[in-house]
Amino acid sequence: MKFSLVRYASDHAEEAHLKGWQKYYNTYTIIGRRNIAYSTFAMLGVLGLYLKFKPSKKTTTGHLDNQNVNEHDQPHVTGGKKRH
To answer: Pfam families attached here (predicted)?
Structure first.
């Protein structure tokens, strides 16, 4: 009978011989997985706030200019069928 040793995620990054940023963002430790999840949620939150508060593409000056124009001030368009 042969048994194999299975390593599960632990809280010890030293066991995985991780250095630098890999010590905090990895899939080998529970804390590393947690940090990846936190980063993912933070990025989704930033993206949501950006989409909510980004400036619109509409300009207000064109809309205000059209309010004071009546139908007699419109230019005459030629080439179409006349409506009676």
So the answer is: ATP_synth_reg
Close Cβ partners of 24 (under 8 Å, ≥ 6 residues apart): 13, 31, 32, 35
Better pLDDT: 35 or 21: 35
Q: Say how many domains are in the chain.
A: 1
Query: Is 73 a member of any domain?
Result: no
* DSSP state letters, 47-83: HHHHHHHSPPS--HHHHHHHHT--GGGSPP--SSPPP
> Domain of 47?
2-53
What is the rounded CA–CA span in Å between residue 26 and residue 28?
6
Q: Which amino acid is at 6?
A: V
pTM recorded for the entire structure: 0.51
Q: How is residue 59 written in tokens?
A: 């300009």
